[in-house]
Amino acid sequence: MRAAVARRKAPGIPDADAEIAAAVWAAIGRGVTDQRVLFNRAQDAAVAARRYERRHRRRPPGIFHEQLDPADRAVDAADAALTIRRLLSELPAPSSDVINWADHKVGVGSGVRLSSREKMAGARWAARARVVLGAPDDVA
Question: pTM for this one?
Answer without folding.
Answer: 0.39
